[in-house]
Amino acid sequence: MSGVIGFLRRVGSRTVDMVWRLGFATRFFGLVLLYSGQSFRRLHLTIREIYFAGVLSLLIILVSGLFVGMVLGLQGYETLQRFGSSDALGVLVALSLTRELGPVVAGLLFASRAGSAITAEIGLMKVTEQLKAMDMMAVSPIARVVAPRFWGGVVSMPLLAALFTAMGILGGWLIGVVFIGVDDGAFWSQMQAAVDFRYDVMNGVIKSIVFGVAVSLIAVFEGYDCTPTAEGVSRAITRTVVSSALAILALDFVLTSFMFRGQS
Amino acid sequence: MSRTVLDLWVGFFVVIGAAALLFLSLKVGSFSGFNSSNTYVLQAPFDNIGGLKVRAPVKSAGVVVGRVAEIRFDPATYRAVVSFSVDARYAFPRDTIATILTSGLLGEQYVGLEPGGDVDMLGEGDTVMITQSAVVLEKLIGQFMFDRAAE
Amino acid sequence: MTVARQDFLVDLRAVRFAYGEREILRGIDLSVRRGQVVAIMGGSGCGKTTLLRLIGGQLRASAGQVVVDGADLAGLSRAALYGLRRRMGMLFQFGALFTDMSVFDNVAFPLREHTDLPPELVRALVLMKLNAVGLRGAEALSPAELSGGMARRVALARAIALDPMLIMYDEPFAGLDPISLGVIGQLIRRLNDALGASSIMVTHDIHESLEIVDYVYFVSDGRIVARGTPDEIRASDDPFVHQFVHAEADGPVPFHYPAPSLAASLLGEVGA
Ligand SMILES: Nc1ncnc2c1ncn2[C@@H]1O[C@H](COP(=O)(O)OP(=O)(O)OP(=O)(O)O)[C@@H](O)[C@H]1O
Ligand SMILES: [Mg+2]
User: Fold this and answer.
1) Alpha carbon distances (Å) from A20 to A8, A15, A23, A220, A241
2) Which atom of ligand 1 is nearest to the CA of C93?
3) Residue A22 reports pLDDT greater than 60
């Protein structure tokens, strides 16, 4: 009996806790937007963060994109040739990448490469009282530290996703056309005929923007909100990666069901 | 790291990102949805549209000339009304026949336009009067077996 | 001592403060006259850093008034508070240097954020401040390459970058060798007089600070337990002051954080 009550109490306090944090995060998001002016007026602050979030993630994004595309090429060919339609390999690779794999996998990689770094940096600044010192110097840490990192992430993510997708298509082409010998013309022309710019490419880009906002917000929030100890920072980093992954997958489901509902 | 090197890297990153987007929009995808400014909309009633979907291509002589924009059910006639936009460069005579066809045996379905010989052309909002419904495979097979049985 | 209230740059009246349930300050009356250097002393964990945070407006008093330059902090908007803070400098206990910037950029930070000075002028000012703390040669180092004492001196240079009216030092002498200690002590006094500023200094180094300050407060158990000018302190026979000046382990200032007796804790552990 007491076990049941204890369990219920834990569930209850967890729920209350979660709602609290959600409320905090929303308020924090509002503050970040409110204090974003500086990130645009003093562009070099944001450019610096684009370097850390975007440029430093390039390598992992390009390499993983290439490999995911090559695997898609191999597996897709394997399946398609059973139905005698290996010419459609380009379509398969391009559609799966532009619509789903590009934004989602790039988002997951971005969360673990750049999101965790943002959380760690802000968290450590909190531990070493740098945020308090800044606040004491009449410089808002949200405007000076948080907002540029947020916007750096928001700008980087769609570009990284586009690079991932493009790299993946090249990888699929490499395997399909260069190594297996699918017809080059068929590969590209079928792809072009089946992939619509507005419907497939743009929706993928919109997804990547949404994921960029979500991951960047989670990363800066977890860093800013962490318990200011070494353990608190490490836990915040873990939370960033886990919540980002969950957020990406959940948002992907929601967006997909809106974007591609009952159509082709 | 000096500010110039940083700016250079970020500039490089943004340029290749933009190039990737350009690659996706030009080489991978195509602007199939013709600009609504230079298309006109036609309608065609069908008894049965089979598996036709919105955004399916509209072809004439095998060339894509438009896209299906909307499919609805008309409760007055109990028929399906398909609206599709056609590239303004192409005009079709009034007695054009609209047919729902399938590319390959199991491929996607599309609307085929077969031009007639009328001198008047179809304009914005007009209805294609002569239509031929989709061939529903189950019906076809059913008919085939029925015919065999009858022989 | 009858002084008009406006002579006080900082004026705390019956200030109370608690972290959650635990009350740290239980009625502090403390004031700093313009131009003075005031030292706050007290045992570790007695709430000195907390007191500075209250004066800086980073914490809100749960009761009582904190008045800085005539403005009650409780009633200030965020913008007004930031306006006030531009005229305050704070040396944090652990330096709190920005780790992603060089020493030079750290000291230049307040100048770049709050003024539109041309880069050459910023450079000249920063080098002057660094020179004052004896670290002009270290401008290109990153904070990770500094020793604890050097980091504190850089933080000191940063705190005075904007020539503030009120400078707060949280343990400026910790981690300094005797030579630097004397130099920094003199620097604090000279800065204060040259800038026409007022200073509050939290410190444990009673002998060094008695040389340079105008007034001393002793904090214990959330209250001011002794106060006076350096001469009064030296002559005092107050047990607190005596314990501090002579660094005695036994006395009114408890060495232990409040807890049940050691024997009781250990027995309780075994019994459980
Ligand atoms: N963020 C906090 N949350 C809860 N309690 C705190 C917090 N910060 C400090 N305290 C408590 O408040 C008390 C006073 O802390 P404070 O940092 O002001 O001490 P201090 O006088 O500066 O000590 P020291 O000389 O060691 O720096 C301590 O007992 C500490 O346990
Ligand atoms: Mg302290």
Assistant:
1) 18, 9, 5, 17, 20
2) 27
3) yes
